[in-house]
Design goal:
By secondary structure, the chain is an alpha+beta fold. Helices cover 17% and strands 39% of the residues. The chain is globular and about 30 Å long.
C-alpha cells in the first residue's frame, strides 16, 4: 500500500481496497486512481500524514487512507 512506500520511491496505483463510493470519489478528486504514478515525498512521524506527488500535484493523505490504496513499485 502507499503507507508502506519508502520516502522518495515512485509507484503506480493498482487498486483500492474499499468499494465505498464516497471514499472512491474522495480519492478521485485528489487524482488518486488506478494507473496513476505516485511518489512519497514525506511521512510525518507517529502515524502522521503522508505527502505525495500525484501526477505533478502535491497531495496529503492520512495513514488510514494510504493503507487502503495498493501500488506496484516502479524503478
Amino acid at each position: 500500500s502507499i503507507a508502506d512506500l519508502p520516502e522518495g520511491q515512485t509507484a503506480r496505483v493498482v487498486r483500492m481496497s474499499d468499494r465505498d463510493p464516497e471514499f472512491l470519489r474522495y480519492l478521485d478528486g485528489m487524482g488518486i486512481r488506478p494507473g496513476v504514478r505516485v511518489q512519497l515525498l514525506t511521512r510525518e512521524p507517529f502515524e502522521g500524514p503522508l505527502t505525495l506527488l500525484v501526477d505533478g500535484s502535491t497531495r496529503t493523505v492520512g495513514t488510514s487512507t494510504a493503507t487502503r490504496v495498493y501500488i506496484r513499485l516502479e524503478p
